[in-house]
Amino acid sequence: MTQPPTVEILVSIYETLRIRYDEANSILTVKDDYCTMSYTIKQIIAALPSSSQPLEHTVDQLLYGDENREVRKVAVVFAANQEVLQQAAALDIELIITHEGLYYSHHQSHPAVDSSEIFWKREQFIKQHQLAIYRYHDHCHRHTPDLLTYGLIKQLNWDTSIIAEEAEATIVELPLVTLEMLIDHLKQRLNLPYLRYAGSKDMHCAKIAVLVGFRGNGATVLPLIAKHKLDAVIIGEGMEWEVPEFVRDAALLGSPCALITLGHAESEQPGMQHIAQLLQAACPELEVHHLTANPIYMIG
User: Fold this and answer.
1) CA dist list (Å): 296 to 60, 185, 194, 292
2) Which residues are paired to 40 by β-bridges?
């Protein structure tokens, strides 16, 4: 007749099973924490939102890398400047999706024969760290809504205050605030150390146009002011002698309209963060980062 196991044997078996269970659970936890899946660059590009209409001319293209390469780590950036490239290399990023060009021009995609040595040093860094780089500029602007503008509106918590969408601007209507309150809100929501403005801080603002990037020129802004009877315009940047001079004259002639200039990068960073979130939702197993550089200007 077989003897039943002793208490000591049962305890030993229990301890052995518990240890093995804990080891297995630890392995599963580690796998969950680092559960990423590779996508080809071509698949990632296809997952990015695109224009509803085909674009006859576009700067959007893969500048470096092979579209069939499989990657796990992606960075979405406003500009792939050297500060951002170094961040990406430190994080082992394999693909950078950049809104602006690499070589200080909207259209130049690679160094030219007579380019500064800075161009060639940057290209050498890109190749040394095997960084694939995709330019994503036109499709996100031609998407409906414009993803860069919407990202800024969303960051400002104004997405429920939209009253009109124009080709290059979004019009919002807010509860009556002063220009000073508006400036404080922008600096706080966008984490800006400073911005530039024209107008009296105690003037009241309700109808506001928001234009990101380089859209703050007279041909675009002045018709919007007349059409929507705007109290304020928020731009990324524009010609210094166009809208600012109009705002100066309008105030002296009794029809004040405030102007707030955020900076090109500052106006489009929230949109790139929004795009990073959209890409993460479309490719959940991908590791997506939104990288930024320090502000380029300082106040002297």
Assistant:
1) 25, 22, 12, 11
2) 70
Please report, as a single letter, which amino acid is at residue 62.
L
Backbone angle region of 50, left / alpha / beta, with phi > 0 → left and psi within -120 to 50 → alpha: beta
Are 75 and 68 in contact, with CB atoms under 8 Å apart? no
Quickly count: other Cβ atoms within 10 Å of residue 197's Cβ. Answer: 19
Q: Give the residue among 23, 66, 24, 18 at the shortest CA–CA distance from 45.
A: 66
Sequence-ordered list of residues with C-beta below 8 angstroms from that of 235, at least 6 positions apart, any chain = 211, 212, 215, 216, 221, 243, 259, 260, 261, 262, 267
- Residue 170 to residues 8, 67, 69, 75, 163, Cα–Cα distance (Å): 76, 35, 38, 27, 8
- The bridge status of strand 95-98 relative to strand 70-71 is unpaired
SS3 category, 161: coil
User: Tens of pLDDT along 63-94?
Assistant: 999 999 999 999 999 999 999 999 999 999 99
At 202-239, the pLDDT tens digits run 999 999 999 999 999 999 999 999 999 999 999 999 99
Name, in order, each residue with C-beta under 8 angstroms of 176's C-beta and a sequence gap of 6 or more. Answer: 204, 205, 206
- Give the separation between CA 14 and CA 88, rounded to whole angstroms: 48
Instruction: Compute CA distances 243 → 170, 219, 220, 247, whole Å.
Output: 17, 9, 9, 6
Q: If you count them, how many residues does the chain have?
A: 300
Q: What is the pTM of this model?
A: 0.86
Encode pLDDT of 88-145 as tens digits.
999 999 999 999 999 999 999 999 989 999 999 999 999 999 999 999 999 999 999 9
CA distances from 275 to 79, 182, 280, 297 (A): 14, 26, 9, 25
Q: How far is it, in rounded angstroms, from Cα 25 to Cα 19?
A: 10
In this structure, are residues 284 and 270 in contact, taking their beta carbons and an 8 Å threshold? no
**Smallest Cα–Cα separation from 229: which of 244, 245, 249, 250?**
250
